[in-house]
Design a protein that fits this description.
The complex is a heterodimer of chains A (210) and B (63). Chain A is an alpha+beta fold and 210 residues long. Chain A is built from six helices and eight strands; from the N terminus they run ββααβαβββαβαβα. In chain A, β1 and β2 form a beta hairpin. In chain A, α1 runs antiparallel to α2 and α4 crosses α6. The chains are: A alpha+beta (210), B mainly alpha (63). The interface between A and B is large, with 50 and 28 residues.
Chain lengths: 210, 63
């Protein structure tokens, strides 16, 4: 497990378990469907499309032997090939019972580049959890915090990504109001801040355990 | 003396004030990122090739 941050659900705060994904998670995200009612249908469509495209990228890297499914595997790959590019999928799973229908509540497709930076190519949260009217909040932020933790595990000093027209304002606010256009950078200070917002393992609730 | 009332976080909460602020930001601004054209990979799966009939069968159909 990479991290276990809390998100807000219709039943209160609940911890999600964020870990490296495997081939089965690709199949799980392919089953994502938009709920019958969504206050912002375009967000539901984006979520599904981004998740499928991330899954496609995951399969492509997997075929080429450049995808990893655990932090140990990632570290081993980096050790054997320091300039190699490796991809990984982070997946958020619910820890509470009864669990909501989707097995994967959010995904982040990341690439570790040749100079040990991380490129966040896709970040998507399940349509049921990205509806502001649905009672869920914080799934995307939780994924970003897990990416920061993963970066720390491989001494990566920079995470960057391409902001979309609809997400630039989120990253602008998250990064302290600096003007964000089509790209954003989480430097070491920002990554440390993201990591510091995570609870220590002793603070995790019993329900947060898998 | 009566203590001033405080807004208490739900029991077992591990969310900091900053995280709670972030939740509200996320409720108004989508954090999702991705590019549809980045990799030039179509979403539709490749169509399976049609099985080619054996030569004898093709000849029979022609006849």
């Amino acid at each position: 497990m990479i991290a276990s941050p809390n998100i807000l659900t219709p039943h209160g705060e609940r911890a999600v378990r964020i870990e490296f994904g495997g081939p089965r998670d690709d199949a799980a995200t392919r089953r994502w469907k938009a709920p019958a009612r969504h206050s912002m249908p375009h967000l539901a469509e984006d979520a599904i499309e981004f998740a499928r495209l991330a899954g496609k990228r995951w399969r492509y890297y997997l075929k080429r032997g450049e995808a990893v499914a655990s932090i140990h595997e990632l570290r081993a790959k980096i050790a054997s090939e320091p300039l190699g590019e490796f991809g990984f999928l982070l997946v958020a799973r619910p820890t509470w019972k009864p669990a909501p229908a989707p097995a994967a509540l959010g995904i982040a497709w990341c690439r570790r580049t040749w100079c040990n930076h991380i490129v966040l190519d896709f970040l998507s949260v399940h349509p049921a959890t990205n509806d502001p009217g649905g009672g869920y909040k914080g799934m995307g932020g939780a994924m970003l915090r897990a990416v920061a933790v993963a970066a720390g595990m491989i001494d990566c000093p920079l995470v960057w990504g391409e902001a979309t027209v609809s997400s630039a304002s989120f990253y602008e606010k998250m990064l302290g109001g600096q003007k964000i256009r089509d790209h954003f950078f989480f430097d070491e200070a920002a990554l440390n801040a993201l990591r510091a917002a995570l609870p220590s393992p002793s603070q995790l609730k019993p329900s947060a355990k898998p | 003396m009566k203590q001033p009332s405080k807004t208490l976080a739900p029991a077992g909460s591990n969310a900091t004030e900053w995280i709670r602020w972030l939740w509200e930001v996320e409720a108004e601004h989508s954090p999702m990122i991705g590019s549809r054209l980045k990799f030039g990979l179509p979403l539709s799966p490749a169509k399976p090739k049609r099985a080619r009939a054996k030569a004898g069968k093709r000849a029979a159909v022609k006849a």
